[in-house]
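Q: Structure tokens for this one, please.
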Amino acid sequence: MSKLLKFFWNAGAVMFWGFIIISTPFWLLAALMAGGCSFDEYEELYSPDKSMRAVVVNADCGATSNWQTQIFVEKVDGTRTTGYLIRLNGHPEDMSYQMSWGKDNEFLISEFDFDKLLGFKNQSWGPGFVRVHFKVKGS
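A: Here is the predicted structure, written as tokens:
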């Protein structure tokens, strides 16, 4: 009986340590990849009724990529957000753009260079939330 018990004990130890040794590099790689970017709020602009705010974020993903200026709108109570509305190539300090609220729920992003545009979202988020307009510099 003791030989059988010893065999199972050793087999369990081999399986446990084998799993740990094989899975550790994958866990380390996932941990390094997950924390690669930092997103720092750079500027904010509140709607006239103070129910929403537009936020400019500086996204920095390290030495392998350039800074990105990202703008999104969220309700102040945290119930809804647009995700990024526009992404521009460069640090917010170096970018030319303007943000303004027309009405409580109409937001304009303007005076940005088209050649710095990396992406944008132009969609309807439904009633009771923001309507976004874009205007490129010179248009």
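A few notes: The chain is about 25% helix and 40% strand. The longest strand covers residues 38-46.
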